[in-house]
Amino acid sequence: MIDFSLTEEQLALRDTVRKFVQTEIIPHAHRYDVSGDFPHDVIRKAWENGLMNPAVPEKFGGLGLGITEDVIMNEEMGAGCLGMTTSIAVNTLALYPILIGGTDEQIKHWITPFLNEPHLASFCLTEPGAGSDAGSLSLHAKDEGSHFVLNGSKMWITNAGHSHLLTVFATTNKELRSKGTVCLVVPTKTPGVSMGKHEDKMGQRCSDTRAITFENVKVPKENMIGQIGDGFKIALKTLDKTRTPIAAGAVGAARAAMEYSVKYSKERKQFNQPIANFQGIQFMLADMATKVEAGRLLCYQAAWALDRGMHKQGSYYASLAKRFSADMAMEVATDAVQVYGGYGYTKEYPVEKIMRDVKLVQIYEGTSQIQRVVIARHLLED
Amino acid sequence: MSTFLIAEHKDGQLKRVSLELLGECIRQGTTPTCILMGSGNLEGAAQELGKYGASQVVLLENAQLASFSNEAMANALHAYLSKQSPSGILMGASWLGKELLPRLAAKFQVGIASDCTEFKLGTPVTVRRPVFAGKCSKQVAFTGAPAVFSVRPNVLPVGEAKGSSPKIEKVAAEVGSPKAKLTEVLASGQKKVDLTEADIIISGGRSLKSGDNFKILFDCASVVGGAVGASRAAVDAGYAPHDMQVGQTGKTVSPKLYVACGISGAIQHLAGMRTSKVIVAINKDPEAPIFQKADYGLVGDLFEMVPLLTEELKKLKAHS
Amino acid sequence: MNILVLVKQVPDTETKIKITSDKKSIEKSDIKWVINPYDEFAIEQALKTKETLKTGTVTVVSVGPDRTVDALRTAIAMGADNACHVKADQELDTYLVSKALVEVIKKENAQLVFSGKQGIDDDQAATFGYVAELLGWPSASMVIKCDVSTDKIAVHREVEGGTRFAIEMPLPAVVAVDKGINTPRYASLPGIMKAKKKEIKTYSLADLGLGSEAPKTSVSDFALPPERQAGKKLSGDAATQVKELVKLLREEAKVI
Lengths: 382, 320, 256
Hints:
The structure holds 3 protein chains of 3 kinds.
Chain A: H1 8-35, H2 40-48, H3 67-80, H4 82-101, H5 104-116, E1 121-124, E2 140-143, E3 147-158, E4 165-171, E5 181-187, E6 193-195, E7 209-220, E8 224-225, H6 231-267, E9 269-270, E10 273-274, H7 279-307, H8 311-340, H9 351-359, H10 368-380
Parallel strand pairs in A: 1-4
Antiparallel strand pairs in A: 2-3, 3-7, 4-5, 5-8, 6-7, 9-10
Helix pairs in contact in A: 1-3, 3-4, 3-6, 3-7, 4-6, 6-7, 6-8, 6-9, 7-8, 8-9, 8-10
Chain B: E1 2-6, E2 9-10, E3 13-14, H1 16-27, E4 33-38, H2 43-51, E5 56-61, H3 70-81, E6 86-92, H4 95-108, E7 112-116, E8 118-120, E9 126-131, E10 136-142, E11 147-151, E12 167-172, E13 181-186, E14 200-204, H5 215-223, E15 227-230, H6 232-236, E16 257-261, H7 267-273, E17 278-283, H8 290-293, E18 296-299, H9 302-318
Parallel strand pairs in B: 1-4, 1-6, 4-5, 5-12, 6-11, 7-11, 14-15, 14-16, 16-17, 17-18
Antiparallel strand pairs in B: 2-3, 8-9, 9-10
Helix pairs in contact in B: 3-4, 5-9
Chain C: E1 2-6, E2 9-11, E3 33-35, H1 37-53, E4 57-64, H2 68-78, E5 82-87, H3 94-107, E6 112-116, H4 127-135, E7 139-148, E8 152-158, E9 164-170, E10 173-177, H5 189-197, E11 201-204, E12 217-223, E13 232-233, H6 238-251
Parallel strand pairs in C: 1-4, 1-6, 4-5, 5-11, 6-10, 7-10
Antiparallel strand pairs in C: 2-3, 7-8, 8-9
Helix pairs in contact in C: 2-5, 3-4
């Protein structure tokens, strides 16, 4: 039968992350949103308490936590601040290609430093000309025998300005499309790698987002994960694993927006009574709650399937979770601003930030439109 | 079987809570034997107890009782009381009372109830005490004797002052061999009380008109060991630094007493202090929204009222 | 050195308290149970002490029903080495809990016992002192500074009005800590995973020789505080209003 309960460890995990978020993230979220500064301190504390890199298997010294645990953590962090969540969680995205496609030696070599120091990594797939059409990569990796030479650029790379390591997807031959792609591990300090300016974004403003330019960057063949032709596959497998926790972050943000709205509606009085007495408000709150629960359940279902090795089904559920959670979070956050009225429109109250933050979830890690394409494809195949 | 009241003094000056407990016992028809502990400075306090109705005061004297030692005090009390068949032993729930009574109860291996707001002497002795940070209260009945309990100060009224000199019995206190030693008394520096920890907050709004004027709030707060807060309007106008701001984008506080001076009571400010136990509003404008939230509202000029409040609080403190 | 921490599991501070229909207790069904916040400071102080002395073990002990084990596991996740659970489903009082804790302290051969200054459910602030007296050990409460060496302990404790006492005690001793002494560490994720596998020693009251003991107090008649009354505007001139206010604050509201 279906058991919706979490294990003792999962509950303990949720409690500790929730506590961390309340003490270390929420009090500072507004300040970092305004300044756009990078939350170094918060990331360090998150690392010190084991909140980063949860997926590294135990045999390599990590916690070996599954997607379900990642989902629980991301929901809690998302309820605090999506910008900080992204900054903390994007290591998982960046390091997964190595965990998925790398040899044991490669994993030991590249991943161990992240367990010993609060190092950051970036996942470099998107380009100025390759967003949803991620297969049409232009960053060129010229095969020169013992090494590749990279030329081209990447766009919208998270944590770029503070990363130690980049996992880069490039093409050896544009005409082969995905079959020519390659995944390379590139230390950020490699000559020829240069970072653009920190983008001034609508939301998730403390999350560092930049363009990266590669000018004749020499990358040794040992840094290749898998073989030539495996790149794109590795990228997709990575995204299969991270899509659900990203969705959970949106669930957390939406949950926070809903909780703020419920609280405010009890305090704010108009027409001599709390606005919570009005059905117009009540209906909005009820819809918020329904959406949040539904989003969470879709995330848990996807995590359950993925943790059990049900790759195809899990990937499908993950698309459902991401599509739904991102879109509903935007609806919930928008309604939260509405419940708060004029006050909600100002930065003095937390809901307009949530609205600006969740908009990005509809765009990154596969737009809501691409998710629909994927879902429909799954439904229509024979 | 009889009732014993452990009376408390500070350098020979009797603490008010002892008179509150004495008054209540007498109101219930029991004159407790009062006990004072110390070294050579207890006569004045003993006479004060007599004035308020005590007929018998026992002075437990020993040099080691001149300063704080929970072991010496518990040893001395037990040595004396174990010979008296006490049915009840009570003390004010001061920091000392709360610390001492559990050790004393352990010597008798009996039950203990701390910080009670009501008590009824009888068989059995029953008390009422707040729990869950005061969210509710419960009645506790003692099985066996003595019933050992401390009573919260400032809850019960002091009795009538009409009595005469009490019978005073001096007893050499048996303090045993205490292991802990008080090595130093560290006086407080004028430490600024943290806003989020303060029990009492005096807060100012834009009506203070300048940063200098906030001095009248600081003067008031210092009498009661409170902190000073400010509304966003006052902070925005530069009258107070941001770390004093109470409200949506400032600090959230939950003191026992919040006095809002010249603060209109906008929803952003209320968000920061609405869980205060008691809210007082002082404002010239009788229509100010803050009065809807205040337990006590004073319509008037804060520049007149706050200094008067400071004076009244000073008077009150002198009588504690 | 064996350092023991007395830990209590209590309802979360945000819990809305509901009284049972027989008024003998509070409704326990919807409660989120947490480690008593003051005990977190105690656990942290014990861990810090062990780190400073570079020797010793930290053992946490709690008395309560099965759910108490969660609190013990959280303490282990914070870094405690061992945990003891005294399983007791019935309502206990300070007397009985203290007697049970004393037996465990003796079994564990503890030299130093930390506790929070009070449990935020019962607010008695009595157990640590009761335990100390039963053991014949010195104790200090409201401790905000604590330095331990191999045979003695020096503390600063709050008194009132900002005054503090500096107290020295030989070991063994009981120290009840107050907020502000330290910042408790989080139960880290690696800690939580390790705690899962740790064995917890379990005792019944009978195991501790207390099978036939009963509490020395009984509880009844839980009641909610009176409803907050509507505010009142005072009248008269400034001086009259202020005098009236101070009187009301002392006698009616009882906040000064």
